[in-house]
Design a protein that fits this description.
single chain; 259 residues; mainly alpha; 8 helices; 0% strand; DUF6090; transmembrane helix
């Protein structure tokens, strides 16, 4: 087409027809401009397609992370409920008379002392933030939901950390005040590779038959703290699970729309 205009231009100039030449020159310029605009449009479309594919990839990775986190929350909720049940059962049985060291061992093996910290799958989100690609999530509502979720995770994680640090410090104080306390809470079968029955003496468990003793009451306090801690953890895990499910739903919708 450009060669066609060039031939016409040469012909009109030869024939001294300036007005016709000007008309064809303008047409040639318009054609070039249109070609540039089309090229830019194609480039923009290619770039948009590339970003769309990258966005979908990140959304799928976020989806996998949140699905794993949901399973993790369920696992921790179940574990927290088990701890509450076991420690509550211990508080009910601790007032029963312990007639032998075997009964004392069995009773002291009931409580659980979990202090697990919040550990979630956040590699994808951290990558989005550190690389400055968070804005690749084109749906502003979804982007805000994702950011709010990970802010909530950080906040709840700090609360869980504080609860664990307090309970562990309380347990450490109890163990240092009453030597052998940690030993009493362990199942001897777990320690048989390096201990013997002489480590477990009836006098170690005499406090169990004395509810007015300071050791008995201190142990009650520690157990109550662990129960309260995990009751709070269940609320935090349930909140994170519900929020994650909501964000997961939004991500799945966005992925489907981007197909």
């Amino acid at each position: 087409m450009i060669n066609f205009f060039r031939k016409i231009r040469q012909k009109t100039l030869t024939n001294n027809k300036f007005s016709k030449y000007l008309l064809y020159a303008i047409g040639e310029i318009i054609l070039v401009v249109i070609g540039i605009l089309i090229a830019l449009q194609i480039n923009n479309w290619n770039e948009s397609t590339k970003l769309g594919k990258e966005e979908t990839l990140y959304l799928k990775r976020l989806k996998i992370d949140l699905e794993k986190d949901t399973l993790y929350y369920n696992k921790n909720i179940a574990r927290a409920n088990l701890l509450i049940d076991r420690n509550t059962s211990f508080l009910k049985q601790i007032y029963d008379k312990q007639k032998s060291i075997e009964e004392g061992r069995e009773l002291m093996n009931i409580p659980l002392w979990d202090s697990e910290y919040l550990t979630i799958q956040d590699n994808t989100f951290r990558e989005l933030v550190s690389s400055g690609k968070l804005n690749i999530i084109s749906n502003s509502k979804l982007k805000v939901a994702v950011v709010d979720l990970y802010r909530l995770i950080e906040s709840n994680g700090n609360n869980i950390k504080e609860g664990n640090e307090y309970s562990r410090e309380l347990m450490a104080n109890y163990a240092s005040t009453y030597p052998g306390a940690i030993k009493q809470t362990r199942n001897p079968k777990e320690l048989m590779n390096f201990v013997n029955d002489e480590m477990f003496r009836m006098e170690d468990f005499q406090f169990l038959n004395n509810p007015s003793s300071s050791q008995f009451q201190s142990l009650e306090d520690v157990i109550l703290v662990y129960i309260a801690k995990h009751e709070g953890f269940i609320i935090l895990f349930e909140e994170l699970k519900d929020k994650s499910k909501d964000v997961l739903y939004q991500i799945e919708q966005e992925i489907n729309e981007n197909k």
